[in-house]
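Board notes (copied after class):
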Amino acid sequence: MERRDFLKQSLRAGLLLSALPALGRFPVQALAASPAVERLRRLVSQGDRIFVLIQLQGGNDGLNTLVPVENPLYYRARPTLAIPKAQTLPLTDTLGWHPALEGFRELYDRGELAIVQGVTYPNPDRSHFRGTDIWVTATDANVFLGTGWMGRYFDTLLEELPPGEIPPEPLAVRIGGASSLILQSERGPIGISFTNPREFYRLVSQGSSFDNSSVPDTPAGEELLFVRSVAQAAQRYAQNVRQAAERGTNRVAYPETDLGQKLRIVAQLISGGLGAKLYVVGIERNAFDTHAYQGGITGVHASLLRELGDAVKAFVDDLKALGVADRVAGMTFSEFGRRVQENVTAGTDHGTAAPLFVFGTQVLGGRLHGHDPDLANLDDRGDLLMQYDYRQVYAAALLQWFGAPQTTAQRVLLREFSPLPLFQPASSVEEWQSTELALEAFPNPASHQVIISFRLPESAAVELLVLDLAGRVVRHVLSGDYAPGPYRVQVRVSDLAPGVYLYRLRVGRRTAIRALQVVR
């Protein structure tokens, strides 16, 4: 398969594969049993935390999202777009939710959503393209970088990985559209993009078996080998995605909207055990760029907010029903807010600060950070002033959610930012001593079946899996809520290929992993 043929197939299917780190510059090698790769296996293990980014493309109008219902300046600036106080959903004495955000209101009231008011950065840029680049690269307005903030975070986790080795599963997934700059690392793109997991698998499975013995030792031959290595690695990740999609499920109904269906796929892949740490989705096509006929209680903006709120609520409810909600959190972001004053075409133009939302059961929810928008003190262009730098939210995600060291957060964000208190702090994934859980397998090595035993000191949610050394689940042994006491479980291994496997016991938010050898 030639490079142009591979790309043609990708474009024709409307999909784009973004090769993971080693694929862009180095030949693909088999996964080695090295300490660095073992660290990667732990990184992508299902017990780790997952982050979901929802991009609101076009610039969301914050003033009509959280309405300053007691501010006459708001109603004066928006004679046709303002939301009457009586039509809002109560939030505080002076703020109301847009009536389309019933889903967000319910999450907030349940303590599963937090609000950060007035988010932007110094000297904000009002261009869609540049504004988006600033947000995804986590830079100042006058700094231009080719790496995304999450790409740089993954760089810190991959720095021990030798050239040519790749993680056993994709670390990041973007559903819908091409890969975002946010996934770009120093090693290259750090994730995969697709619209439908099965279509992605069908695409990259075509033409992925090659005989390289006849490839000439020439520059053209090297290029052909590169393209083939990308295709072969793509198939490997496609198999991960397809298997996770087939294993996974959903337990609540999602809205039949674009964002609703994207988040449905995210929940399905998480429940199916895909090891990705980051998912990026969005409401695309600059939908929030409401220059004309934006609408107030109803209309374009109201429909977008309803799509957002209903989809996120369904997602959180589904994660809870699936028993994985404690591992997943997310946030919204948009390149800028809108101007205070409505324009002559019943819309709003590019502005500056706007609220963003952080969601999940492990969010410090039911909290509103910041004060009501100050419409009496605007910048020299008549736009809202900053209350919080967006990188304070990123710092919270890195430090509190992922449990990254302060030095890592500074390296990712290029300097120190004070994190907002947004997430329940990550408890480190502890390798419990065998004396605590008495976790063991007998016989080990085993040829036909093995008995895995463990002891629970207290009632807990328990999951026991057997994985291969690529991190793929080969046995779902048990999962559910279990009472204190000893347990013995028979596991058939006669159909597994000889080799070394891992059996992983997850109790609450802590994990123990042991090796299991299968012989013949």
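Comment from the instructor: DSSP finds 13 helices and 21 strands in the chain. The first strand starts at residue 50 and ends at 56.
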